[in-house]
Predict the structure.
Amino acid sequence: MQEDERRFAKLHRGIYVYPGTTLETADPCSRGGHLLESSMSNAPAHPPASLQARRFAHARECQARALLEDYVEMISDLISVSGEARVADIAERMGVAQPTATKAIGRLKREGLATSRPYRGIFLTDAGAELAERVRARHRTVVALLVAVGVPAEIAEIDGEGLEHHVSARTLAAFEKFLAAQNRPK
């Protein structure tokens, strides 16, 4: 962290990171170490450029991770239905062109989440299958919470698709605790 960032965070107490992490080690997106901002009403209108750049980079990383999670989940769904996931089927269901799907699948392969075989489809590695199951479980919990607080099921499914990628482990545990309490016999 640069000195001007440190001064800004300390001076205005605008940046908080979960205990045991720092701005450099905070885990982005939904994996439990969000960078959080408090009300910064007494802060200058613009933080240092390097801090703003870090925030935007964090947001882009979260979006890229969410997209990978969607692809892994889709591949898993297709494999469970038809035994394999072809690029054409993935592209169709994701609503993208085949070159776009091919590029995303390339990233999944580079990250060790998927493999492919000539003249066959795309398959998930063990790590990819585990990620797909975690994403699916997170989605079910988010949708269940939304329904429990009165959101119609169809809207909860749509909203849950976006929210599932941005829920920290801590928040997800709170959702699960709330849902368990709601389901207890009274």
Q: What stands out?
A: The chain has a mean pLDDT of 80. The first helix runs from residue 3 to 12.
